[in-house]
Every structure is written in C-alpha cells, then in structure tokens.
Amino acid sequence: MKPETLTDHKATLTIDDIRLDGSLTIPDNAGGLVLFAHGSGSSRFSPRNRHVAEVLNQAGLATLLFDLLSAAEEKIDQRSRVLRFDIGLLSERLTGAVDWAAGQENLRHLPIGLFGASTGAAAALNTAAARPQRVGAVVSRGGRPDLAADALSRVTCPTLLIVGGNDPQVIELNEQAAERLTAPHQLHIVTGATHLFEEPGKLDEVATLARDWFRRCLSGDEQ
Fold first, then answer.
1. Given a cut of 60, is residue 54 above it in pLDDT?
2. Which member of 3, 44, 62, 82 lies 3.0 to 4.6 Å from 26 by CB, making a disulfide possible if both were Cys?
3. What percent of the chain has pLDDT over 70?
4. Domain of 54?
5. Could you report the per-residue pLDDT of 201-219, keeping only the tens digit for each?
6. In this structure, is residue 1 part of a structural domain?
C-alpha cells in the first residue's frame, strides 16, 4: 500500500564540524530509514539513487540522501579526484549520519538500512560493521565491497549485492567479497545490465530488489 503522505525536508548534518546537506523524505508510518551513500563523483542529486529512493518512499520507507563531502571538499575533489576514493573518510561520514539519525526525535525509532553505490558500497559495509546495533540491512548497487575487505567478516546484518550481468570485473570483485561475508547475504546479477544499469528497465529491477530487501529485513514485511 502506498503511503498517504510523503514529507520532504532539507536536512543539514554536522559531522566532525563539517556541514553536509541532505534531502530527507518521510512517508506516513514509515517502516524504516534508508541512508544512501553515493558513488565516486556523484552527490545527493544522483538521478539513479533518487529513482531508487522514490520507489522506497512509495513502499513506506523513509530515505536520506546526503552529500558525503562538503561544498569546499567537492571543489577540491573536482580538481584532484582524490576524496571520492577516500573510503575511510566516506565511511566516517556515513557512520556519522547513522549517529545523527539516532539523535533525531522523528527518526530514532526507525530501523536503519544502507544503500551504497560504487565506492559508497564500501562505506556502507564499513558503517554496518562499525554500528551493528543500528544498521539492519545493506544493499550494494554496482558496488565495490572489496574496498571494505577488512570489515566484511564483521558485518552482521543481511547484505544484498546487486551487479550488472555485463559488468564482469565488478561481478568478480563482488563474488570475492561475498565469500568473506559471514552475515546472511545474496549476490544478484541483473541480466543484460552494465555498471550504471542504464538499460531500459534495469534500474527499476534494482529498485524493486532493494525495496523488497529493506522491507523484509527492516520491518519483517514479506510482500
């Protein structure tokens, strides 16, 4: 059933004295909150992540899309392309966002899921390992879980790895990472999709997979 109302907020997160801008959407009677960690060179305005977020919202899940880098850091990264691959920094920011959500009166009661794309998937897995009592599920889209190699064995929540069938290198990296996961996990290969799932209908398939995974893992909804 679709929620009757979706409430959109501009969110400002302060993490380690760094201001990060975000977009928070909360449906009526939300069954969970999904934080998005975008991939290298992307932002909270990523059309792919926003599409997935809209599907989650319609399924009764709140979403937070936020910039992992500040405005000043984004300018540095546009020149150097270094910060987007600083997995430690990105992981600290996402972990800080989980802690921020736990401190918000309107969010603290919601079970938390993490959706990570590309390098953001490594940040999501690192955060899941760092906050096992708060993170209830992870979904990776075309992710680089291998970049969180040291954390994989410490992830305790159910983890879904989604990879395009025409993305052989990333498939191999996800297969290797899956072997190191001890938590319940699945590797789902989307037939005919490349790394960005730009082919017709493929991103919709990703969104549906993520929706079902989060609803099942965060709220026990099997539908």
1. yes
2. 62
3. 93
4. 6-219
5. 999 999 999 999 999 999 8
6. no
Residue-wise burial string across 146-166, b where 16 or more C-beta atoms lie within 10 A, e elsewhere: bbbeebbebbbbbbbbbbbeb
Residue-level pLDDT at 198: 94
The sign one gets for the Cα dihedral 143, 158, 114, 135 is negative
Segment 22-47 mean pLDDT: 85
CATH for 161: 3.40.50.1820
**For residue range 145-165, what is the model confidence (pLDDT) as tens digits?**
999 999 999 999 999 999 999
Tell which phi-psi region holds residue 195, choosing left (phi > 0), alpha (psi between -120 and 50) or beta. Answer: alpha
36 in any annotated domain: yes
In a domain, 177, yes or no: yes
In a domain, 109, yes or no: yes
What's the whole-model pTM score? 0.93
Count: domains in the chain: 1
DSSP letters, the chain, are ---S-EEEEEEEEEETTEEEEEEEEEETT---EEEEE--TT--TT-HHHHHHHHHHHHTT-EEEEE-SS-HHHHHHHHHH--GGG-HHHHHHHHHHHHHHHHT-TTTTTS-EEEEEETHHHHHHHHHHHH-TTTEEEEEEES--GGGGGGGGGG--S-EEEEEETT-HHHHHHHHHHHHH--SSEEEEEETT--TT--STTHHHHHHHHHHHHHHHHHH----
